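Researcher: Structure prediction, please.
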Amino acid sequence: MRIRQKAAVIMAMLMLCGCGGTSSQAVKTTPAPETAQATEATSTEETGTAAETTQEEATALAGEEAGKMPESFEIHFQLQEDKVLDENRELKQEYQELFQTGEKKIKTYGLAYFETPEMTFLNEGWINRVRMKEGKAAKGFELTYKKRYPVPDDDIGAAMQRAESEGFDLSGEVWEPEIEWNYIGMTLSLSTERTGDAEGCDGIEDLKSADAVEMLKQNMPQEEKNWKSENWGIEQMETAQMAGPVFFRRYTGKYLGKKVQIEIWTVPEPGSGEELFITELAFKEDAFPAASAGREEMKEGLEELDILLPDDSLKTSRILNGYFAKP
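Model: Predicted structure follows.
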């Protein structure tokens, strides 16, 4: 069924059954005449399919109908480290074969986050990161500026509207909107990238904090720079410190017909200085229906393998807490 028809059926049914739901858009909107006509014209088979649609799908489809839906969804699942990693913290051979990875598809990345000791940026939903792929120093540092919005009750449309009301252009020309769909919930992620000079650096280990701070200040987008007041971001970056470097290995493969990436992150444990390992599988879809169906299929597949860890990884928060959390 076309998205427009399906969304119209869902909203009409929600109103008829008195379902409150979590999306005020879906509940309060009165169907226009053409919506009612579309509903009446829908076959019994299509209506049955819509009736089986979850509230989550209804909310998201209503957002898509209103033009408030990103074109990228990244689904994340955390894997049980003790089952999938060997003694060297590499993906076990049996899982490399299962997920169809190979030596040429394994890459190592180093990165560092820049945050104030009070975690001022993170508290406002901002993340500032410098990254480099191993052996790619000639391409410079990747500077990433990211703003995250929570998606309460899976109301994607509301999160998109909030971002726009706070000054973001979501056309994709500067900011790339993406839904990060974790085991527990969703986050709307807006990111933009710049390139920083890596002259004299062979890897992220050679990055000096003062140099990185200057690069981040010089390339900071206006939305972050003037977030709460004029030059807010620049002023916060003046006191920012490096959290890192941290490293992760990325395996690229295929599972259940989808291109998947499996990343193994080494992060500091808050307060102890010990290392923690986070293993995460992710894949992307470009529309909500495919993302929802693919997520459910992947979840069931990983559960059958008995390697799914039913939790969110929260990598950025763990890394920052590992460096800045007070004992």
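Model: The mean pLDDT is 83.
Researcher: Thanks, that helps.
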